[in-house]
Give the backbone structure.
Amino acid sequence: MSDSDAASILVVDDDEMNRDMLSRRLERKGFTVTLARDGAEALDLIGGRSFDLVVLDVMMPGIDGLQALETLRRSHSAADLPIIMATAKDGSDDVVHALKLGANDYVTKPLDFPVVLARIQTQLSLKRARRELEAAHARMRQELEAAARVQQALISRPPTRRSAGRPSGGPTFPARSWPGTSSTFSELTTAARDSTSWTSAATASPRPCSR
């Protein structure tokens, strides 16, 4: 998606010819453009709707660009609302003042449209990158919190108890009687083992006697 897709720009200039020329060229590049004649109208528009970026002229009657910029920065950060100031070539003092007040960038009059377009696209790219980074941080924080909850649940789970009286290793057999006898299986097993041991000893080859 290009930076111009769905991007809304407010152009503020008291010169009607400058406003119309810039708006037409931006609209041909795919931007949605709204126009304001002075700082007061710009503040009213921004108070009632959201814009992705503002191109703000410095020299205007009534509320000029610097006053409008100062007012906007009380409620909109440079990251949330990029503002590019438009000033005369000899207005270096205005540029310095505007940057100190929180302007993101500036262009000089008469406007060179390729330069204006490049500055606009740069600011919109930066704004989109910040939003993507914030979204990534939010997802990472949620995943870490979920992992911490799982870990805490595992730590808090009580240990499994062994059955009372059962040895820790090896199979166990029930102490039931063998059919036809009162002896238990354990007793019969022991007797069979003793009988086998006695038979083996009895049938072993005798050692020759020493003379």
